[in-house]
Design brief:
This protein is α/β, with parallel strands linked by helices. The protein has one domain: Rossmann fold, CATH 3.40.50. The protein is 36% helix and 18% strand. Strands 2-1-3-4-5 form a five-stranded parallel β-sheet, sandwiched between helices. Helix 2 runs parallel beside helix 5 and helix 3 packs parallel to helix 4. It is globular and about 35 Å long. It starts with a strand and ends in a 5-residue tail after the last helix.
């Protein structure tokens, strides 16, 4: 299995961005955790981050035929991007939505998730470990198992 992990805007600032919400661990720490989990699961993983909506759309489209599933944290684009939703629906790859914080307990605008309509599961409020849970879910629910 080959999983693409996509991260949206400002996640590159983890460790310095609102540590009371996102914690003190860095984006580099997150990537290392994801790569270690992939080794444990015996799967391949590629982790990417961008601050640009169109780049996320491009990566989702390019995943078809290359990756078996996607873990996505669109960050602020979760609440605004129909374009990312449309790309996800078009490629029809298994997808899990992840959020480090518990968005259900935050600002009203964060209650809306466009990407959720294309995802098999949402994991929110589990910190970095939510990514690992998403990978476990996709690995255990893959067609090859």
């Amino acid at each position: 299995m080959n999983i693409l992990v996509l991260n949206g805007p400002n996640l590159n600032l983890l460790g310095q961005r609102e540590p009371g919400i996102y914690g003190a661990r860095t984006y580099k720490d997150l990537c290392a955790m994801i790569e270690e989990k992939a080794k444990q699961l015996g799967i391949a993983v590629e982790v990417r981050q961008t601050n640009h909506e169109g780049v996320l759309v491009d990566w989702i489209q390019q995943a078809l035929g290359t990756f078996d599933a996607i873990v996505i944290n669109p960050a602020a684009y979760t609440h605004t991007s129909v374009a990312i939703l449309d790309a996800a629906k078009a490629v029809t790859l298994p997808m899990v939505e992840v959020h480090i914080s518990d968005v259900s307990k935050r600002e009203d605008f964060r209650q809306v998730s466009y990407i959720r309509a294309a995802c098999q599961k949402t994991i929110a409020g589990h910190g970095f470990e939510g990514y690992l849970e998403a990978m476990e879910y996709l690995a255990s629910n893959s067609i090859d198992n």
